[in-house]
Specification:
The protein is α/β, with parallel strands linked by helices and 697 residues long. It has 22 helices and 22 strands. A hairpin with a 5-residue loop joins β8 and β9. The longest helix is centred in the N-terminal third of the chain and has 57 residues.
Length: 697
């Protein structure tokens, strides 16, 4: 005969505990039944008594202690084993009370399954089901005493729970306070971020992965010229010049691929008015916690002014390098021209025929033109100032024709108009030529489709009122140089800035923005003024006023014929120069005119020659630039040996190149190569016949 499984009644208000015990008991051959509180358990047990009951203590409606009292007071149920299974009432007093009320076992949660089942099997084997048996411990005889113990236990538990609740409440209050502090810190952080973002001195932008502008600050609006609402409708590529957009896209791809964490570059940016400015752009990519890209963060600064200063510095360096190169070229060219010009003087002594004299004149004219060319190179590259002198307007325009007219396209007609009575200009011909060249180049570039370029000159009298209107000119006689074109013309906004350094309306690489500022600077240095009249589509007229040269009444008598160059009387002259050709032609010239010559190729040789015969050498003619010992060092050494030594210095670097050393060394006689034989002989004669202190002190 088969035996049905023992029915076990499980009492607990927590669903997870019921499920656990149900699974445990069913898995070991028992038939579990459940109740959510003591009253339900008591009802079920009286309807169908179980073989054993397992009950929690802390439950709603009827707790485990009350259920145990009723259970052990019931004549039918009292013999059924009662196991207390609790996680709340865990102290020794709790166990004593339960056992005193008749509990058969007191087990604390969580118990090992095997231990729990072993104890349960032990209780089930204690006697036949339903058979009455006394409890293991007798309940107190005095009901009041039992209730007192029970009440004390409940009060103790209540106090413990109260303390736990108070602690939990304190913890909760701390959590709430901490959360509020965290929220306040977050709010302050957001406010600081918002203030930093909006008030930053550089442009800031959040850019979506598709290139759309998500958020921008006021500075970026100011830099680009866009209102906030309009800027947020733009794509970031709209703010970048077309030629730099490919680099922008490449930087974004590198950030997305992770091959670059920061993309920093300088790009040409587009202003709302279609103007260009230089921007420094630094971009990073913000990712979420999972590493997925969210959006780009870009920092944009307007660096146009810095770029201008950099370009100006580079131009200055280039000009300095050009000046150094030009000085070296001038030195070499002057050394090449010096023997030619001095040699021509020697040739004339042989009284050549008319045809030969013509050849000599042609050579001399070409050599002197080469000398002037060297001066122009030095003036342009090194800013060497030349003294102002009368400059015929016709000569100035003729030189401009040679330089400029060949560069004009066939679509431009070039015309000149010079008043017949126009006075000479008072100035530097090279610099004035530069002014006209700059103005004519601008006029040419303003007529890409062709037109007419007119250059005219006339006399102008400037009275006090007109002088004040033209920026404080001195009243007097001036020449008006006018450059007129029929080109595109200029707006009022452009006219206000055309003389600003580096301002240009030409495409990048087509102009430096220095032509007109340079022209104005030259004109002002000449005591003149420059103005412009223009309208869009109607061409431009530049008017330049330069002081005129007003000559005194010319003498009617012809100048007397100049006597020949002075001759020497056998004086010994020490000549020092590292150029063998210059050294040789100088020696020949001096010897031809009655001097004896000792030569040296550098300062050290010259010093040795002079030391051997200081009393016999009447004059030292030395180049300033030589190897081993240069001219300045030689002069200092010579004066230590003989303070009264007579010295003539020479240079191939231009008239102003050695002026500082000349003043420092107090050299009264100085020649700039190339010089004619007559100039050399005149200077030697003057130095020899000047008092010694004047000659060299």
């Amino acid at each position: 005969m088969s035996t049905s499984p023992a029915r076990i009644l499980i009492v607990d208000d927590k669903e997870e505990n019921l499920c656990y015990l149900q699974a445990l008991f069913a898995g070991h051959g028992y038939a579990p039944d459940t109740a959510r509180h003591g009253a339900e358990a008591l009802f079920k047990a009286r309807q169908n008594p179980p073989a054993l009951i397992v009950s929690d203590l802390l439950m709603p409606v009827m707790d485990g202690y009350t259920l145990l009292r009723h259970w052990k007071s019931d004549g039918v149920l009292r013999s059924i084993p009662f196991i207390v299974y609790t996680a709340t009432y865990t102290e020794a007093e709790d166990e004593r009370l339960a056992l005193s009320l008749g509990a058969d076992a007191f087990i604390l949660k969580p118990a090992e399954p095997e231990d729990f089942l072993a104890r349960m099997r032990e209780l089930l084997a204690g006697g036949p089901r339903g058979e009455s048996r006394p409890p293991a411990l007798q309940a107190p005889a005095d009901e009041q005493a039992m209730l007192k113990v029970y009440s004390e236990t409940l009060i103790r538990k209540l106090e413990e729970k109260t303390l736990q609740l108070e602690q939990t409440n304190r913890n909760l209050e701390q959590d709430i306070a901490e959360r509020r502090r965290a929220e306040e810190r977050l709010r302050e952080s957001e406010e600081r971020f918002r203030a930093t973002f909006e008030q930053a001195a550089v442009g800031l932008a959040h850019v979506g992965l598709d290139g759309r502008l998500l958020r921008v600050n006021a500075k970026l609006c100011a830099i680009t010229g866009y209102p906030l609402e309009e800027l947020l409708e733009r794509h970031v590529a709209d703010l970048i010049a077309p030629e730099d957009r490919a680099a922008l896209e490449e930087g974004g791809r590198a950030l997305l691929a992770g091959t670059r964490t920061v993309d920093a570059s300088e790009k040409r940016c587009v202003h709302r008015n279609d103007g260009l400015f230089w921007g420094s752009i630094v971009t990073t990519l913000l990712r979420d916690e999972a590493g997925a890209p969210k959006y780009f963060i870009s920092v944009i600064a307007d660096i146009t002014e810095r770029r201008m200063h950099q370009e100006q510095f580079l131009r200055s360096q280039r000009m300095e390098s050009i000046g150094t190169l030009a000085g070296g070229i001038a030195h070499d060219l002057n050394n090449l021209l010096a023997p030619i010009i001095m040699g021509l003087g020697l040739l004339r002594l042989h009284q050549p025929d008319e045809k030969t004299r013509g050849v000599i004149d042609t050579i001399e004219q070409s050599a002197r033109r080469g000398t002037e060319l060297v001066k122009q190179v030095l003036t342009f590259a090194r800013g060497v100032e030349s003294p102002h002198a009368p400059v015929p307007v016709a000569d100035l325009l003729r030189e401009l024709d040679v330089i400029f007219c060949n560069s004009l396209p066939g679509t431009i007609t070039y015309e000149t108009g010079i008043a017949p009575d126009v006075r000479p200009l008072l100035g530097d011909s090279t610099q004035l030529n530069q002014v006209l060249l700059n103005l004519c180049v601008n006029a040419r570039d303003a007529m890409p489709q062709g037109g007419r370029l007119t250059l005219s000159a006339r006399n102008v009298e400037v009275d006090e009122q007109a002088a004040a209107m033209r920026g404080g000119l001195d009243p007097g006689h001036y020449v008006m140089l006018e450059v007129k074109d029929t080109g595109t013309g200029m707006s009022r906004e452009v006219l206000d800035r055309i003389f600003d350094p580096f301002f240009s309306t030409k495409l990048p690489g087509k102009g430096t923005g220095l032509g007109l500022p340079t022209a104005r600077g030259i004109v002002r240095n000449h005591g003149g003024s420059i103005g412009v009249e223009s309208q869009p589509g109607k061409g431009s007229v530049f008017q330049v006023l330069i002081p005129a040269h007003v000559a005194a009444a010319e003498a009617t008598a012809k100048p007397s014929a100049r006597p020949g160059p002075p001759r020497g009387s056998g004086e010994v002259i020490l000549v020092a120069d590292d150029d063998a050709t210059v050294l040789d032609i100088t020696r020949q010239t001096l010897e031809t005119f009655g001097y004896r010559v000792v030569t040296a190729e550098d300062g050290a040789q010259a010093m040795a020659q002079y030391a051997m015969n200081p009393a016999g050498i009447a004059l030292v003619l030395t180049d300033m630039t030589m190897p081993v010992m240069d001219g300045a060092a030689l002069i200092i050494a010579l004066r230590r040996l003989n303070p009264d030594v007579r010295i003539i210095g020479t240079t191939g670097f231009g008239a102003d190149a050695d002026n500082i050393r000349r003043r420092e060394l107090n050299i009264p006689h100085f020649l700039t190569k190339p010089y004619p034989a007559a100039v050399l002989l005149d200077t030697v004669h003057t130095a020899l016949h000047s008092p010694a202190r004047t000659a060299s002190a």
